UniProtKB/TrEMBL annotation:
Keyword terms: DNA-binding, Sigma factor, Transcription, Transcription regulation
Domain RNA polymerase sigma-70 region: 36-102
Coiled coil segments of this chain: none
Protein name: RNA polymerase sigma factor
InterPro entries: RNA_pol_sigma-70-like, RNA_pol_sigma-70_dom, RNA_pol_sigma70_ECF_CS, RNA_pol_sigma70_r2, RNA_pol_sigma70_r4_t2, RNA_pol_sigma_r2, RNA_pol_sigma_r3/r4-like, WH-like_DNA-bd_sf
Span of domain RNA polymerase sigma factor 70 region 4 type: 147-197
BP GO terms, sorted: DNA-templated transcription initiation
Top-level taxon: Bacteria
Organism in which the protein naturally occurs: Blastopirellula retiformator
Length: 214
């Protein structure tokens, strides 16, 4: 879809990161460094949630920035910079997961782990909590692990949509642009993801644990 001059100008005026990217297009190295400083940690965290490995997340974030730099001369703002950036990130992550699947590097745990406990890691945590007081307070590290494990039960699209919605606070429209889907499809995807997360978390929450008070 072609981007009109009025659309490009509107995003240039509204988004300071778009203005930085336009400077990158003009070979301003300092502008590129500033964009990396603003988004590098966010991209690494996103990729870490998607891929599960910190070292791979760092490599993929670097690949995203490399693609940004290589495409700088053809850049024309048709959305917020973050939406454009995460569209690239979504493509990079999808390619990486397909490559991993082809190499059979994705290992899915199965069985009962030699009878040592339930296969579902969320259930293992719930079982460990069951002997404690129902109203016990769990620490942030444990809650973070519970959420991470619950996120692992989602499929790739659901996980990406949730991350963009909750961690990046993107609108339905921006998520739709990033993932190449309609707004209605994104709403449906997020609804299914929330339902799946609820199911994944129930074995843990049924033990009566609650997050720490703020």
């Amino acid at each position: 879809m072609s981007i009109t001059e009025s659309t490009a100008k509107r995003y240039e005026l509204q988004d300071p990161d778009v203005r930085l990217m336009l400077e990158v297009r003009d070979d301003n190295a300092a502008a590129f460094e500033e964009l990396m400083l603003r988004y590098q940690n966010r991209l690494i965290n996103l990729m870490h949630h998607l891929m599960g490995r910190r070292d791979q997340a760092e490599d993929l974030a670097q690949e995203v920035f490399l693609r940004v730099y290589r495409s700088r001369k053809s850049y024309k703002p048709g959305s917020k910079f973050s939406t454009w950036l995460y569209t690239i990130a979504n493509n990079v992550a999808s390619n990486a997961r397909r490559s991993m699947a082809r190499r059979k590097e994705i290992h899915i745990d199965g069985g009962d782990e030699g009878g040592l406990g339930p296969a579902n890691p969320l259930e293992r945590i719930a079982k460990a909590a069951s002997g404690q007081m129902p109203a016990r307070v769990i620490d942030r590290a444990e809650m973070g692990e519970v959420v991470r494990l619950a996120m692992e039960t989602l499929n790739d699209r659901q996980r990406m949509a949730v991350l963009l919605s909750k961690f990046e606070e993107m609108s339905y429209a921006d998520i739709a642009t990033t993932m190449g889907m309609s707004v209605e499809a994104i709403k449906s995807l997020l609804s299914r993801a929330r339902a799946n997360l609820k199911v994944a978390l129930e074995p843990y929450l049924e033990q009566g644990a609650r997050p720490p008070a703020e």
